[in-house]
Amino acid sequence: MSASVRGNSKNPQSTSAITTLTDKLLEDISGDFETLQKQFSEKLETMSTRLDQLEESMREAMNKKSSVSPVTSTE
């Protein structure tokens, strides 16, 4: 390792800048993750609602079909 690189690792300003940058990046990533998590949860809720509606429609169609009496031919 060169002397200049070793010197930078002991430089408080350099360390502080790296720490600040790292903290900022972690905050950004955390914010992005929270946004994605919220969007994902909203999409799951929407899908769940749509599936519930589909199940209800199918249930109604099955009940309607079973309540219709069969037509008998008189010929």
Which short descriptors sum up this protein?
mainly alpha; disordered N terminus
Helix content: over 70%
Low-confidence runs (pLDDT<50, min 5 residues)? 1-8
Biggest sheet architecture: none
**Number of E strands:** 0
Report the sheet-strand fraction.
under 5%
Using only CA atoms, what is the Rg? 32 Å
Alpha-beta classification:
mainly alpha
The total count of helices amounts to 2
Textual characterization of the structure:
This protein has 2 helices and no strands. With 75 residues, it is mainly alpha-helical. The chain has a domain at 13-59. The longest helix is centred in the middle third of the chain and has 56 residues, at 12-67. The protein starts with a helix and ends in an 8-residue tail after the last helix.
In short:
The chain has 75 residues and is mainly α.
What is this structure's SSE topology?
Elements: H1 3-9, H2 12-67
InterPro entries: HS1-bd
Pfam family, one: HSBP1
GO cellular component, one term: cytosol
